[in-house]
């Protein structure tokens, strides 16, 4: 479905699903919001180009792991560019906040958070659940406030 540019609905869904994850991932890697948005855009562009060139091989792993690697490389590129422009001390880049395994864990955390947030939007729109219950859930699940405090 992603192989053709004409399938705009699929690409829009892909963008809606991954752009927030990419931005959150980049923010947690120390980028400003503007830089995180740029890194997300670049990651999506690289993904599309490589995917259409046949760069994704299902036998080598899951799509989201491949996307995570692209995202990590884009974040590293932004850090390097900032260091080259002397916006940050180059030694700051050497202390990149996470290694490959940690970045995969962070990526999965952000994917799961995005799934939960989309589910919460669906619940708000399509269920009779009391809004206060949903708000309490959101405070406990996302803001990590203690349940006793929220109650």
Percent helix:
over 70%
The major β-sheet equals: none
Q: Name the shape in a single word.
A: globular
**Cα gyration radius (Å):** 18 Å
Order of helices and strands: HHHHHHH
Number of helices: 7
Q: Look at the helices and sheets and give the structural class.
A: mainly alpha
State the domain count. Answer: 1
- Percentage of residues in DSSP E strands: under 5%
First-to-last CA distance: 45 Å
Give the number of DSSP strands: 0
Low-confidence stretches: none
Overall average pLDDT: 85
Would you give an account of this structure?
The protein has one domain (8-150). By secondary structure, it is mainly alpha-helical. It is globular. It has helices at residues 8-28, 33-52, 63-84, 90-94, 100-126, 131-141, 147-150. It contains 7 helices and no strands.
Provide a brief overview of the structure.
This protein has 151 residues and is mainly α. It has one domain (8-150). It is 73% helix and 0% strand.
């Amino acid at each position: 479905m992603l192989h053709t540019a004409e399938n705009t609905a699929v690409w829009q869904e892909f963008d809606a699903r991954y752009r927030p994850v990419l931005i959150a991932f980049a923010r947690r890697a120390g980028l400003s919001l503007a830089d995180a948005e740029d890194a997300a855009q670049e990651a999506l562009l690289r993904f599309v180009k490589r995917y259409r060139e046949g760069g994704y091989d299902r036998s080598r792993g899951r799509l989201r792991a491949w996307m995570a690697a692209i995202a990590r490389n884009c974040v590293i590129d932004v850090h390097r560019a900032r260091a080259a422009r002397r916006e940050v001390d180059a030694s700051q880049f050497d202390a990149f906040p996470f290694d490959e395994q940690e970045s995969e864990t962070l990526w999965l955390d952000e994917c799961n958070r995005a799934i939960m947030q989309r589910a919460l939007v669906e619940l708000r729109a399509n269920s009779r659940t009391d809004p206060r219950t949903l708000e309490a859930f959101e405070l406990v699940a996302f803001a990590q406030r203690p349940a006793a405090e929220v109650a």
